[in-house]
Amino acid sequence: MELQMKVAQAVHVLNHDTESSNRVAANQWLVQFQQTEAAWEVATSILTSDHQPFPSDFEVEFFAAQILKRKIQNEGYYLQLGVKDALLNALLVAAKRLSSGPPQLLTQICLALSALILRSVEHGKPIEQLFYSLQNLQTQNDGIVAVLEMLTVLPEEIVDTQNTEISASHRNQYGQELLSHTPMVVEFLLQQSENKFQCGLQPNERNRKVLRCLLSWVRAGCFSETPEGSFPTHPLLNFVFNSLQVSSSFDLAIEVLVELVSRHEGLPQVLLCRVPFLKEMLLLPALTGGDVKVIAGLACLMSEIGQAAPSLIVEASAEARALTDALLSCVAFPCEDWDIADSTLQFWSSLASYILGPDVDGTNKKNVEGMFFSVFSALLDALLLRAQLDESTFSDESRTFDLPDGLVQFRMNLVELLVDICQLLQPATFVQKLFFSGWFSTNVAIPWKEVEIKLFALNVVSDVVLQGGQTFDFSVVMQLVTVLSSWPSDDLKGFMCIVYRSVADVIGSYSKLISTLETNARPLLLFLAAGISEPLSSNACASALRKLCEDASAVMYEPSNLDIFMWIGEALEKKCLPLEDEEEVVTAISQVLGYVSNKELQNNLLSKLLSSSYDAIGKLVSFFLQYLVYYYGSVLIFPFGVVASSCINWVVQNSSMIHRSKLLALKSLNQEIGCKGANKKSCDFF
Question: Where, by residue number, does the polypeptide cross the bilayer (predicted)?
Answer without folding.
Answer: 629-652
